[in-house]
Specification:
heterodimer, A: 386 residues, alpha/beta, Rossmann fold, 6-stranded mixed beta sheet, 4-stranded antiparallel beta sheet, 45% helix, 19% strand, B: 263 residues, TIM Barrel, 12 helices, 8 strands, 14% strand, globular
């Protein structure tokens, strides 16, 4: 997985479809990221934070009881063990350091489940920056705990009240804010989406997941796994882990979307949030509302590199429904003592469903976040069982 | 290319030593066709008609609300374009919408449908200069003028490229921010107008944040005219967006016309 072309495209997807006001800022960000990424001092500062603050490298866990249950050898890349509880911290530490290097004093972010918002609020606290997080009003109700966490960390959380009042509307609000505050604010976008250079830059900040996992698999297995599976909303954790294996054609890459928010599975190419990519939309081009049990995957679009990976056939994308996700959530808790976030539970659900076709193979799943944030919601869902 | 109908109308007003008023109205909102005609009759030089999109990132709360109401009422891009085709507005019409609605219809098909409906121009705020290629090819071929936006953040060299590609007029974004009313005219509005006037003979109209006739007069000390959106649409929404709201449109547009003519 390399650089996009000069127009910021992976194949025909990507680009920079934003209000004119933002174009110079995106060009500046592109230059700033290139310079930082090539600067050993920047890399060393980021690596230091990832190790000493976020707790990297994250372990690779062989899941013996789950493997026995499914008849598939399952490994987890434990991004749930990072500081703040998900993979999101990798990207946020990178962007926050970059923002500071570029002289910005304020971080803006959108969040769905709250994981990216918490990670951004954390980085802002660490570096002494201002932080404003937009979150859909519906999501704020679903994820009260994360709203409190962000506020505790010193961030301001503002509800997105328009449209479906979920993640896509939080992105709209963050972009509107950035149009007005671009001179001193950095938009810390939380996934491999949006206008160029975000899809590429965010993937590079998450490349550490795949790089570590490739080495860990080599140590454990003597080579790569047969299949790498990750959940896909915008697609950042998937892009991160895929990047460690995409160059090896023997490794199958699988993205798992929620059935109610399957941009690749149910969408057609379109333009929203600054990018051309697969998008759930109606016959006129109005963007559809996504519906899934997981706020973090409630997004009608997908990062442009995933559209390219899907079109080129390098990765395949599948859908699971909420019921399958709940079963996987329980199964993983009971067999491994790991309560997964609802997002990676989508990847688990696909493996559980496909156990027959995966029998005898080794599957690496990106355990992108821990389930603590989802426990209150799952108490209601599982009320008659637990 | 020869100037299109929109550019000719604006140049004519300018040649008369006067300033241009281009009101924005949201298509599909209430009796919007009547509002467009009322705006024209009240002295608009052209009318900008918004085709509502579900995710309007360049728009503030007023236009968002108008868009959501129009969409809930069931409007569609083709319904708006078709109605424009049936309406004798009397002045050139520019549609304003977002890239995805155009992409979904197909660049060429959308441009042809505008031309067939007699629409003079299009404004697509999420298609910046670098992404204009396929759209401008289609629009040029259909003789639809593409108005580009020029923002305060653009360096001089970029402004020159923008005015080189813009047709009809160049839309000077008056401030850093999305559409909406502001209590006073931003300094950036006069600055961007002056920078653009220095590099182009195209009409320079300032939009975003032009809220009162007084602000319009102030910015038109430099600019050739103004685009008035949220200040007008808010009044339409407040008056219930019914048939009688056409009178409100006439009153607001007339107040800008009068103030600018009085200079």
């Amino acid at each position: 997985m390399g650089e996009p072309d000069a127009t910021g495209r992976f194949g025909e997807y990507g680009g920079r479809f934003v209000p004119e006001t933002l174009v110079p800022a995106l060009a500046e960000l592109d230059r700033g990221f290139r310079s930082a990424w090539a600067d050993p001092a920047f890399r060393s500062e980021l690596d230091g934070l990832l190790a000493d603050y976020a707790g990297r490298p994250s372990p690779l866990t062989e899941c013996h009881r789950l493997s026995a249950e499914l008849g598939v050898r399952v490994l987890f890349k434990r991004e749930d063990l990072n500081h703040t509880g998900s993979h999101k911290i990798n990207n946020v530490l990178g962007q926050a350091l970059l923002a500071r290097r570029m002289g910005k004093t304020r971080l803006l972010a959108e969040t769905g489940a709250g994981q990216h918002g918490v990670a951004t609020a954390t980085a802002a606290a660490l570096l002494g920056m201002e932080c404003l997080v937009y979150m859909g009003e519906v999501d704020m109700a679903r994820q009260e705990l994360n709203v409190f966490r962000m506020r505790l960390l010193g961030a301001e959380v503002t509800p997105a009240m328009s449209g479906s009042r979920t993640l896509k509307d939080a992105v709209n609000e963050a972009m509107r804010d950035w149009v007005a505050t671009v001179e001193h604010s950095h938009y810390c976008l939380g996934s491999v989406m949006g206008p160029h250079p975000y899809p590429w830059m965010v993937r590079e900040f998450h490349r550490v997941i795949g790089s570590e996992a490739a080495v860990q698999c080599r140590d454990l297995l003597g080579g790569p796994p047969d299949v790498v599976v990750a959940c896909v909303g915008g697609g950042s954790n998937a892009a991160g882990i895929f990047s460690g294996f995409a160059e090896d054609p023997s490794v199958e890459l699988v993205g798992v979307e929620p059935a109610g928010g399957a941009a690749v599975g149910r969408g057609v190419p379109g333009i929203v949030h600054g990018m051309r990519s697969y998008l759930m939309q109606d016959e006129f081009g109005q963007v559809l509302e996504a519906h899934s049990i997981s706020a973090g995957l409630d997004y009608p679009g997908v990062g442009p590199e995933h559209s390219h990976l899907a079109t080129s056939g390098r990765a395949t994308y599948h859908q699971v429904d909420d019921g399958e996700v709940v079963e996987a959530f329980v199964l993983t808790s009971r067999t491994e003592g790991i309560i997964p976030a609802l997002e990676p539970a989508h990847a688990l659900a696909w493996v559980a469903r496909e156990r027959a076709s995966l029998a005898g193979r080794t599957v690496l799943i990106n355990m992108s976040g821990r389930g603590d944030k989802d426990v209150a919601q799952m108490m209601d869902v599982l009320a008659d069982r637990i | 290319m020869a100037p299109g109908a929109l550019e000719r109308a604006l140049r004519q007003r300018r040649s008369a030593g006067q300033k241009c008023v281009v009101p924005y109205l949201t298509g599909g909102l209430g009796s919007w066709g009547a509002y467009v005609q009322a705006a024209s009759a009240a002295g608009a030089d052209a009318v900008e008609v918004g085709i509502p999109f579900s995710d309007p990132v360049m728009d503030g709360p007023v236009i968002q609300e108008a868009s959501e109401r129009a969409l809930r009422a069931g409007t569609t891009p083709s319904a708006i374009v078709d109605e424009l085709g049936r309406t004798d507005v009397g002045v050139p019409v520019a549609v304003m919408t977002y890239a995805n609605l155009v992409d979904r219809a197909g660049w060429t098909r959308f441009a042809s449908s505008l031309a067939a409906a007699g629409v003079a121009a299009a404004i697509l705020p999420d298609i910046p200069l670098e992404e204009t290629g396929p759209w401008c090819d289609a629009a040029d071929a259909a003789d639809v003028e593409t108005v580009l936006l020029a923002a305060p953040t653009a360096p001089d060299q970029r402004l020159e490229r923008i005015v080189g590609r813009s047709r009809g007029f160049v839309y000077a974004v008056g401030l850093l921010g999305v559409t909406g009313e502001r209590s006073s005219l931003a300094d950036s509005a006069v600055v961007i107008a002056r920078r653009l006037k220095a590099v182009t003979d195209l009409p320079v109209l300032v939009g975003v944040g032009i809220s009162t006739p007084e602000q319009a007069v102030e910015v038109c000390e430099v600019a050739d005219g103004v685009v008035v959106g949220s200040a007008l649409v808010r009044r339409v929404l407040e008056s219930g967006a019914d048939e009688a709201s056409a009178d409100v449109v006439a009153e607001v547009v007339g107040s800008f016309r009068t103030a600018l003519d009085a200079g």
